[in-house]
Specification:
This protein has 299 residues and is an alpha+beta fold. Helix content is 35%, strand content 29%. A hairpin with a 4-residue loop joins strand 5 and strand 6. Bound molecules: 4-diphosphocytidyl-2-C-methyl-D-erythritol 2-phosphate and adenosine-5'-diphosphate. The site of adenosine-5'-diphosphate has 20 residues, from helix 1 and helix 2.
Length: 299
């Protein structure tokens, strides 16, 4: 018997970042939108814990116990007093170290898959608690849709979304380390007064209305200057997407994936084509959101 779980990527339509906390993390007002780019996690009983991965970025995924999917299986097994004897296979389509929460998706997916395989029957709150221990973005990968994350981004409030938003994503030739981008944010902000992060009323209203023009006017990412500082070539990608008619262009989370909001699937195809021929990125994908979080796709 095996269980397969499908988990989406995310884009941050608002990422407001406060000053570094004593524990090194930053308080956020993090507005997540789950988009239809997916990793698929399949778990099968095995003699011990084993991770395998396939997909275009598979060679960049750690297959040891640092993999978030392995950590998720171990955390659930420990809580229920059993051995994590499971083979976790990751069919990876979400870019690695791209600011789209691919590792977090695999953590949430492995958790839901092992819970179903082992018949653990963990409550939603228990699963969310384990997710928050695994990483700040992991709870959102479990719930999907759209949500405001406060604290480290792990304390979620679901958000109403009044329509489907269409996106183009440009994947970069290399990754960016999330801690390095937060460190650069700290460096750039040295000596300045960093305000408390708050969600934008205009942005939440635009999401609720499903209005792409209003959303385009309201998106923001406080990590974008830091990502551009570490990866200046991204400015060229953002400019190419804007010139091709995107309603707005921004870095997704800590980057380096860049996200382009467009009005409809036709505009998405045109912007994707223009970005591809601009030579400013490795590859281009289109996806719409919101979509549901980690979902059992087969057993
Ligand atoms: C920036 C965001 C935006 O959604 O995503 P990505 O762009 O990485 O996908 C997240 O905050 C990333 O969340 P996640 O990747 O789960 O981070 P974690 O494993 O919890 O933390 C990794 C490191 O990032 C920094 N970190 C993370 C979250 C936070 N609120 N403050 C931080 O300073 C810390 O240096 C921490 O050690
Ligand atoms: N299942 C996983 N998939 C991808 N990366 C993982 C995974 N588990 C751990 N990692 C590590 O986490 C780092 C960040 O990965 P990822 O979640 O893809 O990016 P981001 O945090 O930018 O969204 C990777 O470089 C890798 O070392």
């Amino acid at each position: 018997m095996s269980v397969t779980v499908r988990v989406p990527a995310k884009v941050n339509v608002q990422l407001a970042v406060g000053a570094a906390r004593p524990d090194g993390f930053h308080d956020l007002a993090n507005v997540f939108l789950a988009v239809g780019l997916y990793d698929e996690i399949t778990v099968t009983p095995a003699d011990g814990l084993r991770i395998t991965c396939d997909g275009p970025d598979a060679d960049q995924v750690p297959l040891d116990r640092t993999n978030l999917a392995a950590r998720a299986a171990e955390a659930l097994a420990a809580r229920y007093g059993r051995s994590p004897d499971v083979h976790v296979h990751i069919a990876k389509d979400i870019p690695v170290a791209g600011g789209m929460a691919g590792g977090s998706a695999d953590g949430a997916g492995a958790l839901v898959a092992c819970d179903a395989l082992w018949g653990t029957g963990a409550s939603r709150d228990e699963l969310l608690e384990i997710c928050a221990e695994l990483g700040s973005d992991v709870p959102f990968s479990l719930v999907g849709g759209a949500a405001l994350g406060i604290g480290r981004g792990e304390r979620l409030t679901p958000l109403e979304v009044g329509g489907t938003f269409h996106w183009v994503f440009a994947m970069a030739g290399r990754g960016l380390s999330t801690p390095a981008v937060f460190r650069e944010f700290d460096r750039l902000g040295e000596g300045t007064d960093i305000p408390e992060p708050v969600a934008s009323g205009e942005l939440l209203a635009a999401l609720a209305k499903g209005d792409p023009d209003a959303l385009a006017a309201a998106v923001s990412n406080d990590l974008q200057p830091a990502a551009l500082s570490l990866f200046p070539e991204l400015a060229g990608t953002l400019a190419a997407g804007r010139a091709a008619g995107a309603l707005t262009a921004l870095v997704s989370g800590s980057g380096p994936t860049t996200a382009f909001l467009v009005r409809d699937p036709e505009a998405a195809a045109a912007v994707a084509q223009a970005l591809m021929s601009s030579g400013t990125c490795r590859t281009v994908r289109t996806a719409a959101g919101p979509v549901p979080g980690a979902t059992v796709a087969g057993r």
